[in-house]
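User: Could you walk me through two proteins back to back? I'd like the raw sequence and the structure tokens for each, with a short line separating them so I can tell where one ends and the next begins.

Assistant: Of course. Protein one, sequence then structure:
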Amino acid sequence: MPVSVRIPSPLRPFAGGQSVVEVEGATVGDALAALGEKHKELIARLRDADGRLRSHVRIYVNDEDVRFLEEEKTALKPGDTLAIIPAIAGG
């Protein structure tokens, strides 16, 4: 089932410059695994050494934060959109 993954500007160099990547996946975890197969450098920026999402990375499915759903087990439907949102700090 194809879903779209929106890539934020700071991470686009690790996704071949693409702003959207189409992947297959029944769950958020499946979609991220498929994204990692296509763009290993990108997934290395999203996951820590233990394979968990880094604390500063948020994933949204159709504007819903997966932390408030079923996290990486959140089911996807064809046409869903995942958005990767890295936290940005400044001062």
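----
Protein two, same layout:
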Amino acid sequence: MQITQNSATTKIPVLMVSTSDDKTAVTGATVTVQVSKNGGAFATVAGSVTEIANGWYVCTLSATETNTVGPLLVRATATSADEWRDIHQVV
């Protein structure tokens, strides 16, 4: 997904599945999302993470988290869930 630089309220979807079978949706989890901007160190996002349904969550990024052009690496974790990893491009 392409993200416009300095855009506020960019929503990033993440899917959390169980570590026990790698397919069962994890619901009701406390999900932590971190981003790495253009190869920088990972930092926890300030925005909220909201559950949609069926193991899907959405993380809202701020303009600060989208202020660097280049790859935006996304890492999401939760207890008893596989780590979610994704790459987006800030343009």
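The mean pLDDT is 95.

Let me know if you want the two compared in more detail.
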